[in-house]
Specification:
Number of strands: 4
Strand content: 5-15%
Helix content: 55-70%
CATH topology of the largest domain: Four Helix Bundle (Hemerythrin (Met), subunit A)
Shape: elongated
Structural class: mainly alpha
Largest sheet: 2 strands, antiparallel
Length: about 300
């Protein structure tokens, strides 16, 4: 079919869907709406007034009902969470959590006068709700995390450092549908599945390392036949790529990739030898950075090799 910029429906439906998002998705919004629906009903008008001071009235006017006097009578909670801007919605949820924690302590007679919410006593049921919010962010692939502020029920949403992660993952998903890259990218996809399941453990760096190593073998052995030895260390496969001109235009990348693989190799070895080290990898921000970095290298390697092959 002629390449005129049009993509038929059957091909559009086969295009890879992003697994991570910086903006709240519809499923994430639906879940957050349910989790926060009963939180701090008496404080919602003051939260909206605060938001209006920061962003103006027009972005929020569709989500409130006013008294004839002009004050806020009702906040359309579900509508706002489903349709509002991500930054506004997350700020709203932060403040709902804060005021719900305060209200719970006051109802129980445990509120300490003069003490800010973040220094008040924690409440187990609120910690469970915060855990539910965090679970939505993780399992829906939303690139925001939650940080606790102090001991009480105050949270802050923080954007994970992941510039370009969504774009790289989309490209790798598309590539992984085709041979010869399907097998080589199994480790990357398995690591991503663990990431979305909230399993931030030592298996993520192991699977990412295996994916890069398998990609190097696919190119050097299966595709080019430069060697038949599948037991070489990764630096020797990289040397083969450089020796045959794959890195002519990007010579700096070979040592960079070698350093990354050395680092991953050491991580895997260290964790395998010392179970006490495994908690180090139970960190979503670290896993995000690692998957993004390895994904970028995988995409670069495949793209650079295909350019090399096309120019032969």
């Amino acid at each position: 079919m002629r390449n005129d910029g049009y993509t038929p429906l059957i091909d559009r439906e086969r295009e890879p869907k992003s697994r991570v998002h910086e903006e709240l998705t519809e499923p994430a919004r639906e879940r957050l709406s349910v989790i926060s629906r009963e939180m701090a009903p008496r404080s919602r008008d003051s939260i909206m007034k605060y938001l209006m001071k920061k962003v103006g009235k027009s972005p929020l006017s569709d989500y409130i009902k006013r008294f004839s006097s002009g004050g806020i009578d009702e906040v359309h909670h579900d509508k706002f969470i489903m349709e509002g801007k991500t930054l506004h919605v997350l700020t709203y949820i932060e403040l709902l959590v804060k005021y719900e924690h305060r209200d719970r302590l006051q109802e129980r007679g445990e509120w300490s006068m003069g003490v800010p919410v973040e220094k008040q006593a924690p409440i187990q049921s609120m910690e469970a709700k915060i855990g539910n919010i965090r679970d939505v962010l993780i399992t829906e692939g939303i690139l925001w995390d939650i940080e606790s502020v102090g001991e009480g029920g105050v949270i802050q949403f923080t954007l994970l450092e992941s510039d370009g992660m969504r774009e790289i993952d989309e490209k790798l998903q598309a590539i992984s549908e085709d041979q010869p890259w399907r097998g080589a990218l199994k480790g990357y996809n398995a690591a991503f599945d663990r990431y979305l399941a909230g399993d931030f453990d030592e298996l993520i760096p192991k699977k990412l390392y295996n994916s890069i190593e398998e990609l190097l073998k696919t190119i050097c052995i299966d595709e080019e036949g430069w060697t038949d030895n599948r037991e070489l260390v990764h630096s020797e496969y990289l040397d083969l790529l450089k020796e045959h001109g794959v890195y002519d235009a990007h010579g700096v990348t070979a040592p960079e990739l070698g350093s990354l693989l050395d680092s991953l190799d050491k991580m895997v070895a260290k964790v395998s030898d010392d179970r006490k080290q495994r908690h180090v990898y139970h960190d979503r921000a670290y896993a995000t950075l690692l998957i993004h970095q390895v994904g970028a290298y995988l995409y670069f390697l495949i793209n650079r090799y295909e350019e090399f092959r096309d120019n032969e």
